[in-house]
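Exercise 3.2. Students should predict the tertiary structure of the chain below and write it as structure tokens, then compare their answer with the key that follows.

Predict this chain's 3D structure.
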Amino acid sequence: MKKNGFVFVESIAVLVVIVLALTLFLSSYNVLVRKSKSKDYYDLPKDKYLLYSIANLGDNTQSFSVNTTFLATKDNCGTYLNSRMDDCAQVFNDYNLEYFLVVYDLKNTLESGAIKNVSGIKSDIIEYLKTLKKSDGTNGINYIIGVFKRDGKKYYASLVL
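Answer key:
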């Protein structure tokens, strides 16, 4: 008796089981890598304190506008931050600050896709924003976000406005 058909079906079944097992393993690995990255690069205490210090530099009577989302870099910070501090480019250099972002209503900003319209926004910042609490139940939450670059790596910190 020839059993060539049975061997072929058995081989296909084994391959399907192996592919499913590898797919499950890969998806679990992806989650572990993402959590590891967030533990190592997101919301470190020293970055949160540094962001708090930067946010409170200069004229504290000027509050951040909480009705608009903006991204400030060393090159364009004068447009957004000069009312709070005199030489914002120097602050960016001194603190290794790459981006200073104020996000108005994070939930609405992410859901509507408006974050992609912010000039200079990068995909890594959007990925970080997705990890933050978006709403307190009824209202979206406003954030100040700082992206610091040290030793060629980016570190992210956020404060609720």
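Discussion points: The longest strand covers residues 143-150. Strands lie at 70-72, 97-103, 143-150, 153-160.
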